[in-house]
Specification:
single chain; Rossmann fold; four-stranded antiparallel beta sheet; 10 strands
Length: 239
Amino acid sequence: MPLLEGKGITRYFGGLAAISNVDFHVDPGEIVGLIGPNGAGKTTLFNMVSGAISPKSGRIMFKGSNITGLRPDRICKMGIARTFQSVKIFGHMTVFDNVRVASLFGAGSKSTSGKIPGDVAGILEFVDLYKVKDNMAADLTLVRQKQLEVARALATRPDLLLLDELMAGLNVSEVTQAMDIVKRIRQSNIAVFMIEHVMKAIMGMCDRIIVLHHGEKIAEGTPQAIADNKTVVEVYLGE
C-alpha cells in the first residue's frame, strides 16, 4: 500500500485549473521528485497534501486514512512534515529553540524507527547545525536556514517529508551537502517527496519522477525514462 496517494486531485484558482485530475503516490522509503516549469502546479499540490488548501475534487490518502481537507496541524501529527520554497523560520528565536518548538508538535512521542535522533541536539547534529545552535535563526546564511527548516520538519517525527526547492540558491558544494542530508533522511526510513529544479539532485537521488505542466501530469517514471521522454525534454528539460 502506498504511504501517500492522491486520486483525481483538482484545484482551481479564479476559474483556472492549477491542478487538473492528477494521480500520484509515494511508497514507504521512496524518494519521488516533482518537476515542471514555473507555474506548473507543484507547490499547489504540496499545499493540498499538507493541508494549507483543499482540493476542489479528488482524494488524498496517507497511511490508509483519508486526509483530504484536514487542517495542517492534524496532517502534521499524522506524520507529514514540509519545508517551504521561501524559508519560514522563526528568525527572532535561536536555532535550538526553532527545533525545540517543532519537537513539541507533530507526531509527539512517536519513536523513530531509523537513524533520526530523538532529541533536539541530535537532530541539529544530523543536519550539521549543532555548532550554531545558539545563533539567532535570522543571522544564518541561506543554506543554514534551509538546513534549519529540514531540522524543524524532522523534529515533528514525520514518516513523509515534503521538500519544496531545498536546493534553490545553493552553490555546487552546498547542493552536494544538501543531497547528502536527503540521502541520510531516506536511510532513516522517512520517505521524501521533493520539488526541485536542480537536475543533478533530481536525477541523482530520485527513485521516480513526476512531471507537471499547466497543472496536468504529463509523465512519470524513472530518472532515465524522464530524461528520454521527448515531451518532457520539449517542455522542461531542453536540449
